[in-house]
From TrEMBL:
Species whose genome carries this gene: Microbacterium rhizomatis
Protein name, as recorded: Uncharacterized protein
Top-level taxon: Bacteria
């Protein structure tokens, strides 16, 4: 059933794309993953700017997502990113020590 959404029923997709969704939905199809990706990109930008990613920052960013499963998905991805950043930093230190 593809009923038209009336103006009174419509609200904006939470990913920020500007598209409308029905009153019962939070996202357009696939846009929940896009929202997670945008938040993860924000963490990548933090690293690029020299700021550390902390569990507190991850928890704060996760609150921008509407459901517990989506928040958990984001936290898991962010923690994998944290581990990758730590591993990359450890490699860089080892390389510097080897060249010293």
């Amino acid at each position: 059933m593809n009923a038209k959404i009336t103006a009174a029923e419509a609200k904006n997709c939470l990913c920020g794309c500007g598209q409308t969704v029905s009153a019962k939905a939070s996202y357009r199809s696939g846009h929940d993953a896009a929202h997670c990706s945008m938040l993860l990109q924000g963490l990548v930008n933090e690293v690029a700017d020299g700021r550390p990613i902390t569990k507190a920052l991850i928890a704060q960013e996760a609150k921008n997502l509407p459901s517990a499963p989506l928040q958990a998905k984001f936290r898991n991805a962010a923690e994998r990113l944290m581990a990758k950043v730590a591993a990359d930093e450890a490699k860089a230190v080892k390389k510097m020590e080897a060249n010293a």
